[in-house]
Amino acid sequence: MRKVSLLSVLFMICSLAVLAQEKSKGKNRTGFKAGANYFAQRIEEDGEYSYSDFRPGFTIGIFREIWLGERFIFQPELAYNRMGGEKNQTVVKLDYLSLPLLLKMQLNRLGLSAGPQFSLLLSGKSKSEFGMEEDVEDSYSSADFGGIVGVEYSLGSAKSFLIGARYQFSLNDVQKDAAAGESIRNTGVQLTVGFRF
Prior knowledge:
The protein is 11% helix and 64% strand. It is mainly beta. Strand 8 and strand 9 form a beta hairpin.
């Protein structure tokens, strides 16, 4: 099921890229980025919300900028993301393959972006205060549908170097077989540096 979903999303990205390519003005660029994730889990129980502690993770990925006009860019990406959180001295590490589909408004060196993100769970582990590690992949949904809002600044004479910050959030419950009134959602901040050519 995961492979079918991934292929469907990749097909959609390719179709949009071809359509956008026809409207672009030859400024399209490819790049890569890497950085740190600071994620927590928003936990709902019987209408009450709480957050786990934020935990550091990392991200690495590639992206393509496809110009749609003077100021707007369609930016599909493929990235590895580590999310999760810590609560009651138990650390949860969730590894995802993420496919953001962003629309970016470019204002000279400043870029403002927003869009959906589809993530496939690659692995899930929890580690207790006693150092015991447990595989918890079966306790989590295989997909995380979310959203991204972010800002990015370009450096250098060719605007090739990038620094960026994003807020990411889940739109669905990432917990499998949750009881009524219970849910867990990933939420966090991402700080990256990158290069485009």
